[in-house]
Write a structure and sequence with these properties.
By secondary structure, the chain is an alpha/beta fold. It is built from seven helices and twelve strands. It is globular, with a radius of gyration of 18 Å. The structure holds cytidine-5'-monophosphate.
Length: about 230
Amino acid sequence: MNGLAILVAAGRGERMGAARPKAFLPLAGRPLLLRSAEAFEAAGSVAHIVAVVPVEEVEAAGTMLRGLRKLSAVVPGGQRRQDSVLEGMKQAPDGFQGVVLVHDAARPFVEPALIDAVVSAAAAAGAALPVTPVVDTLKRLRDGRVVETVDRTELGAAQTPQGFRFDVLARAYEKAFREGLTVTDEAMAVERLGEPVVVVAGSQRNRKLTTPEDMAWAESLLREEARA
Ligand code: C5P
């Protein structure tokens, strides 16, 4: 298949106290963005990789990713996540009709098998995303008090890569931008279109590294795996 993977790493509020954005921080010597990109390089369903990064990191990202055969562009991102994704979509080959994948570069442990599963499901249904079960009991809160307990059997935690037939995401974004809607993930734009979004089983490894503690967890996971 000829999927187009857009790796988003252009968020501004993500420095974890460091000088560089988190996707550029090394994890056991290799930046998160590179680790993520390598998973897409290895996935048989992906033909093109586009990285969307802060404008001041475009050059560094190009150098970091230059060994990847599938890399087609490194472009600066926009104000919101959806603006960054749109910049990535503009890099699609002319007349592209395949599946577009959007992945948080801060999920470096995504597996090629999960990527391929999302592409297959998205090609069949129009839109697909990986979810994991919610294990904690969830409370709805107001003013420091519990209002109610939320039934978690109907809830899932959304991961990336999220996959879409290109025309489906283009229509969903067209509507979201026209209506001034800010979405927190791409699937939300498709939900607003009223079109189906199917789920595939996500993985615990594929978690988003957000805090310095997450980085420490990831380092220890890699150490354990190196010993095994
Ligand atoms: O803020 P959040 O964790 O939801 O961001 C998810 C992903 O979207 C991150 O990988 C971030 O770099 C990306 N993003 C982006 N451009 C923005 C905002 C977020 O590429 N303007």
